[in-house]
Amino acid sequence: MTQASDTHFTEEELTAHAMGEPSASIAAHLVGCVTCAKLVEQIGRLKTDIAELPDEDVPASVRRRILSSARFRGHASRRKPGHPFLDWVRSPAVLIVGAMLLLFLLYFAYVSLG
Ligand SMILES: [Zn+2]
Q: What is the model's pLDDT at position 1?
């Protein structure tokens, strides 16, 4: 029982699990680990919150900026293959969560500005 919670999964692994790449070993770990379970729950809640945001509340200029920054990162990583930081940034889970966090923050900034 305690064996499962001796070593935690990384945020990247938990994010991938919560974002649609379920892992049997993570699922088993979550049963006995409150720390990882909470993180997965938060990621899931963020995913739901963002999915519920109306499309028209995200300005087109914001979408363009996110898309162009994603394109820039992809281009940079092709120029320097094997760079550890770029490998990390290039991973789909990090890009998805990064874009979602950015949208989430921009949404609240946009709403509070009226
Ligand atoms: Zn854990």
A: 43
Q: How far is the CA of 91 from the centre of ligand 1 (A)?
A: 21
Global pTM value = 0.44
Q: DSSP label at 59?
A: -
Q: What is residue 89's predicted lDDT score, i.e. its pLDDT?
A: 66
CA 48 / ligand 1 centre spacing (Å):
22
100: pLDDT confidence band, cut at 50, 70 and 90? confident
CA distances from 1 to 19, 25, 45, 83, 102 (A): 26, 14, 27, 38, 38
Contact between residue 47 and residue 19 where contact means Cβ atoms under 8 Å apart: yes
Output Rg (C-alpha) for the chain, integer angstroms: 17
Give the list of residues 6+ apart from residue 28 with CB closer than 8 angstroms, or none.
4
